[in-house]
Amino acid sequence: MSVELSTPLTLPSGVTLANRIAKSALSEALADRAQAPTAELIRLYRRWADSGAGLLITGNVMVDRRALGEPGNVAIEDDRHLDLLGQWAEAATARGAQAWVQLNHPGRQAPRGLNREAVAPSEITVTGAPGVFGKPRALSSAEIKGIIRRFATAARVVVDAGFTGVQIHAAHGYLISQFLSPLTNRRTDEWGGSAENRRRFLLEIVAAVRAEFGPRIPIGVKLNSADFQRGGMTEDESTEVVLALAKKGIDLLEISGGNYESTAFMGASGEGVKASTRAREAYFLDYAERARKAIADSGAELPLMVTGGFRSRLGMAEAVAGDAVDIVGLGRPLIMEPDLPRRLLAGEAGAMLVHPRRLRIKHLEGMGELMWFGVQLRRIGQGKEPDPTRHPLRNLPHYLHTTGLIGRPARRGFTG
Ligand SMILES: Cc1cc2nc3c(=O)[nH]c(=O)nc-3n(C[C@H](O)[C@H](O)[C@H](O)COP(=O)(O)O)c2cc1C
């Protein structure tokens, strides 16, 4: 049977996704000062519930309120916001989509203006963003075990609230990715040194989350195909991580790449990105083919999702019809056109047509783009339409303020 975008997919846990399009995680930055969901966040998911995507993955939710990645992150440490989380889950699942919460810890990518301190596997500061991130403190082994428990607790709370699964964020240079990378993990205890030790943190989180709610709730992992940095995690090592995850038995592996120092996930510009990868619509398809082959050779089963760059129905349809990809992930297109999957599936749209206004200042482009999309997310949360004509520089002063680069740090996200 040839696989089409509308073909359902049953995951190893037995849960069925209605189609092959997923919304990938997009940090909404719409929590209140207590890091709880707001009415804006809930309204945004009411809109996406209707997007047509079979799977909605939330923006990253932090497992420790003392460790925020952006202003306005939701953070979950216990049941205290169960009611609001329940309303969020209800909105996201209202039209029958699977809704998974992405769980994250920023590690060293915790802006100074938002956090009293940053923690990491080793004391190595993020480069290329002077003033934003401080030197992190190396975690003790007891603290590492505490963070593993935090992932399990947050997973239990979101499933109690009505979300249908979780995704563990092991990509983009956040804490788990910092453990995986030899560039940021210089430990010599059981959490570092060898590649096997570096992946222990991720595998123990997966095991702790699985133990919390058994085999019937899907667990996804988002992983870098590579860090696209000299000395960072390579594709070879990433493939070893994939095989270890396949053996552990997760439901869906989402492939991405890069971090704050090399933002390959926003476009195939990172160091070492192959020309063949650049030539394809999605950035990480070559790697997905390689991972798929390694998984098949090992005899394991692990559905793959690839995110980054998909814009046309043809590009997406070819990806799922081929051997490597089960699910295509869409990020920015779901901000510009929140109902794009439904129209793609119905044959009413051939591609994303609304494009953001560019800043065209090389140094600020990556940061400017994230801010710009953040503002659009808030607009949708306020019941408005996205505004593709908005000038990116209008967001800059607020960004500098919220990250603590100028003035007093603010706890709220970017205002629209
Ligand atoms: C505003 C914004 C916020 C994002 N937040 C997250 C996040 O919380 N977690 C994550 O894993 N990826 C995040 N991403 C990355 C997206 O999930 C996705 O990997 C990336 O946008 C590439 O896919 P696209 O080309 O379809 O946009 C974010 C991207 C954007 C633009």
UniProtKB/TrEMBL annotation:
<feature type="domain" description="NADH:flavin oxidoreductase/NADH oxidase N-terminal">
    <location>
        <begin position="5"/>
        <end position="345"/>
    </location>
</feature>
<dbReference type="InterPro" id="IPR051799">
    <property type="entry name" value="NADH_flavin_oxidoreductase"/>
</dbReference>
<keyword id="KW-0560">Oxidoreductase</keyword>
<dbReference type="InterPro" id="IPR001155">
    <property type="entry name" value="OxRdtase_FMN_N"/>
</dbReference>
<protein>
    <submittedName>
        <fullName>NADH:flavin oxidoreductase/NADH oxidase family protein</fullName>
    </submittedName>
</protein>
<dbReference type="InterPro" id="IPR013785">
    <property type="entry name" value="Aldolase_TIM"/>
</dbReference>
<dbReference type="Pfam" id="PF00724">
    <property type="entry name" value="Oxidored_FMN"/>
</dbReference>
<keyword id="KW-0285">Flavoprotein</keyword>
